[in-house]
């Protein structure tokens, strides 16, 4: 085992200042507990559809083992553009306005690194997925976190107030349906927000990875409302349970896409060829692969909300994604201590709300992308655990 030479001055200071993923840290720690039911990660428990598996195998057999074009195979980009147009009325030229990435995560990295300069200001409503803030700090941006509790919506009024305080802001990150809250926007709410964006010079990074998992209303894309200022980010991980395939994409005005596409090229060269062929097959049908999953997720959501309410939690009713962001029962205030005690004593794993930024303190996030039987058992365990604390 080699030991590092004494005196080597190594380490990017910005990387060193950012803690590792708190979600993964919690998951890794509680995974050591025998018999634990984990509701920690945003990982669909469904298998990939058979027609997508078959297309992946066929691509390998057909020797799709070489570099793809940097922006991705054009037939896939054409299918993505057709899908976005048909499903969300967001229209893009597949040749110049769509790029295939290694998951939505890489798209977020490439977008922030490609569009902003060190010292630029970016607005991030919270609670939200911690990746955005981490990547913005890596890019040496000035990050303005906006607490959206208790409704967890970044309204037009909140954006106006934020811009009044930070007129220098150049970027806005939106993620809806939201990870961690499951909250999304009614059309009128998003249209009002879009009007404020139009009156500004903001670039919106709109992460709509959960767009197919909306329960109460049809998803409305910022790419349809403010196309000239939006970089739309999405992928196949949540809609098609293809988390391990690592296929995402971004779409937007050609001038923005050229900059972000250049960063993408220098980061990864191109996506994996067989995985892109799998994604092409995923969009070769009527875009209905998510419909069965969505119906089951909705049943699971209702099941878990009922169990949590019985245990004394309160939570906004998720209108999308597969998370519940639940406020701890009366008398419980330390969400981190609660999570580890729940794991140790009840053998149920959840994530502290505080890891998702301001507004998350005193909450926990539960993923209901788990087997229904496990969710029923987890709900019963949580109720028994809370009863012992009263």
TrEMBL record:
Domain of life: Bacteria
Enzyme type, top EC level: transferase
Domain annotation Aminotransferase class I/classII large: ranges: 36-377
One Pfam entry name: Aminotran_1_2
InterPro entries in the record: Aminotransferase_I/II_large (IPR004839), AspAT/PAT-like (IPR050596), NHTrfase_class1_PyrdxlP-BS (IPR004838), PyrdxlP-dep_Trfase (IPR015424), PyrdxlP-dep_Trfase_major (IPR015421)
Assigned keywords, A-Z: Aminotransferase, Pyridoxal phosphate, Transferase
MF (Gene Ontology): transaminase activity
Names of required cofactors: pyridoxal 5'-phosphate
EC nos: 2.6.1.-
PANTHER family noted in UniProt: AMINOTRANSFERASE, ASPARTATE AMINOTRANSFERASE
Similarity field: Belongs to the class-I pyridoxal-phosphate-dependent aminotransferase family.
Official protein name in the record: Aminotransferase
Source species: Lacticaseibacillus suilingensis
């Amino acid at each position: 085992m080699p030991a590092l030479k004494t005196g080597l001055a190594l380490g990017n200071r910005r990387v060193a200042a950012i803690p590792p993923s708190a979600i993964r840290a919690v998951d890794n720690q509680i995974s050591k507990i025998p018999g634990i039911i984990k509701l920690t990660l945003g990982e669909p428990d469904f298998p990939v559809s058979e027609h997508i598996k078959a297309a992946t195998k066929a691509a390998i057999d057909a020797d799709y083992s070489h570099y793809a074009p940097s922006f991705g195979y054009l037939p896939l980009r054409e299918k993505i553009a057709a899908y976005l147009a048909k499903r969300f009325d967001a229209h893009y030229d597949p040749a110049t306005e769509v790029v295939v990435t290694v998951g939505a995560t890489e798209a977020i990295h490439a977008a922030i690194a490609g569009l902003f300069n060190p010292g630029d200001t970016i607005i991030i409503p919270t609670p939200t997925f911690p990746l955005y803030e981490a990547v913005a700090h890596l890019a040496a941006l000035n990050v303005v976190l906006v607490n959206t509790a208790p409704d967890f919506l970044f309204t037009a009024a909140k954006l106006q107030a934020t811009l009044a305080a930070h007129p220098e802001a150049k970027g806005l990150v939106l993620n809806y349906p939201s990870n961690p809250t499951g909250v999304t926007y009614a059309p009128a709410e998003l249209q009002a927000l879009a009007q404020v964006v139009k009156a500004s010079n903001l670039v919106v990074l709109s992460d709509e990875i959960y767009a197919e998992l909306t329960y109460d209303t049809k998803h409305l894309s910022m790419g349809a409302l403010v196309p000239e200022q939006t970089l739309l980010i999405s992928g196949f991980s949540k809609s098609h349970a293809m988390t391990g395939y690592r296929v995402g994409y971004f779409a937007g005005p050609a001038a923005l896409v050229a900059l972000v596409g250049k960063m993408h090229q220098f980061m990864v060269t191109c996506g994996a060829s067989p995985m892109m062929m799998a994604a092409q097959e995923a969009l070769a049908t009527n875009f209905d692969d998510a419909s069965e999953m969505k119906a089951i997720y909705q049943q699971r959501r209702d099941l878990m909300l009922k169990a949590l309410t019985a245990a004394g939690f309160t939570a906004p009713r998720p209108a999308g994604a597969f998370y519940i962001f639940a406020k701890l029962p009366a008398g419980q205030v330390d969400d981190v201590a609660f999570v580890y005690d729940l794991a140790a004593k009840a053998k149920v794993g959840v994530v502290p709300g505080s890891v998702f930024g301001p507004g998350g303190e005193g909450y926990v996030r539960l993923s209901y992308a788990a087997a229904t039987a496990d969710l029923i058992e987890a709900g019963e365990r949580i109720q028994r655990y809370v009863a012992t604390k009263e």
